[in-house]
Amino acid sequence: MDIKYFSHSDHEVMIAHFPGKLSTTYRELMYSFVERRINIPDNIDIVSIITDDLIANSPLNKQLSINKVNYINPVKNKCFKWSMTKKIPLILMGLAESTKEYCLVLDGADVVMLSDLDDITERFLTYGKKVLYNATIWRFPDMLIDLVEDRSQYGRYNYLNAGCCFGKTEHLFNFYELVQEIFDSYSSYIESEQFYIRKAFDKQQNNVFFDYNCKIFQNWHINKEKVEGNVIKLC
Q1: How far is C-alpha 188 from the geometric centre of its chain's CA atoms?
Q2: For 97, 115, 148, 194, which has the most beta carbons within 10 A of its beta carbon?
Q3: pTM for the whole thing?
């Protein structure tokens, strides 16, 4: 029987993200989730940018393959020089290809699913936003980019992380168009798509926010765990 993981808000974790050093610290755990059986509602597409040199080791690609879930990867079977900011136009390409009402945009190198996504839309709608990103305790890049009023009210997970997001496909496309416009307007180059996404988020907080209650996404910044049978509560 699979162990069930619950976030600090008592929601079963759907999608786990292990960004940066966390993918090394929790490597064994992350790959242990790959074999989990998952269900994706029919009205949701998954967009993930995974280059051919990384696809064999992508936990997300392995899990989706095991579960026979097709996903949109605009760089599949293509060779080009990679940079983080290329994710912005590539995600736009993926969203343009989607025919589904909703999309999940997920990093391929450090994201894996823990449970079925049957009620992901219901959890998403509780925030009253058009686009929802996963939340993190780290500010990256470590500079003042987005101003969130009384940020501390959202608890530990009070910064946006661009590695996972969910929303209606048309709303995601519109938001990433804004991100692309901001990127194109900069005379100096910053090698971080998250910088430009946070810039766009700063302008669109009425419509775009982060999953501070970890109802859908769990960034694996774990202080401690409370174990009860096959249930682990993440704190």
Answers
A1: 27
A2: 194
A3: 0.96
For residue 229, what are the contacts with CB-CB under 8 A and spacing of at least 6?
none
pLDDT in tens, 168-196: 999 999 999 999 999 999 978 889 999 99
Look up residue 72 and give its DSSP letter: B
The CA radius of gyration of the chain, in Å to the nearest whole number, is: 17
Bridge-based pairing state of the strands 4-6 and 231-234? parallel
For the chain, what is the largest distance between any 2 Cα atoms, rounded to a whole number of angstroms? 55
- Residue 169 tokens read as 């496909």
Q: In angstroms, rounded to a whole number, what is the distance separating the alpha carbons of residues 59 and 108?
A: 7
Strand 208-210 to 131-136 pairing: parallel
* Helix 169-185, helix 87-97: angle, nearest 10: 150
- Helices 193-203 + 87-97 axis angle, to 10: 70
pLDDT tens digit sequence for 214-235: 999 999 988 778 888 899 999 7
178 has which bridge partners?
Answer: none
